Amino acid sequence: xxxxxxxxxxxxxxxxxxxxxxxxxxxxxxxxxxxxxxxxxxxxxxxxxxxxxxxxxxxxxxxxxxxxxxxxxxxxxxxxxxxxxxxxxxxxxxxxxxxxxxxxxxxxxxxxxxxxxxxxxxxxxxxxxxxxxxxxxxxxxxxxxxxxxxxxxxxxxxxxxxxxxxxxxxxxxxxxxxxxxxxxxxxxxxxxxxxxxxxxxxxxxxxxxxxxxxxxxxxxxxxxxxxxxxxxxxxxxxx
Length: 239
Prior knowledge:
The protein is an alpha/beta fold. 36% of the residues lie in helices and 21% in strands. The chain contains ten helices and seven strands. A seven-stranded mixed sheet has the order 3-2-1-4-5-7-6. The chain is globular and about 45 Å long.
């Protein structure tokens, strides 16, 4: 297969030229904006290692919250097989819209999802006004995105994602969670967050849904796994 021209983009795009937020280019160029590391990171074995062997478990748990025929929004592209799993879950009678701020990520996801006519990809910043239309989706999925966003942008993104859910619809957040005190990986993850995920600790300071007043329109259920290191938060909007 010919290589997508977008995958040959410069390793560090200029934020002002392509709309990449400065926090993203400053902190995560190595992970999401460099085509050289993208080819390494977007492998199932790497994704599994990053999540301590829990990747498939977390993906299956998230995907199980959705149903065939739904109009679903996915917040940001995801390394690994998650988007294809979600697209196959809702089937050709549904639609999957994936929104990401980085053109490189959009191009990579488009390559991986080739042949799935019910998937659409769009470049946009979920923290900016007007990025999403209100009440347009049956369900929304946000899989391991919030820990990579500074608090102010995180608050706005959560608010915009909640607004996109139609009455009676559902939103699913899967992300890191503060591990229990006895967790053997607690000091390891503290170092990972300090050096590689500097915005993650602020995610633990309050519940995800508390970041938007729209949360009052939803019924919420949170579960954790792997000693509290991961969380799944499901909200159903009252009809």
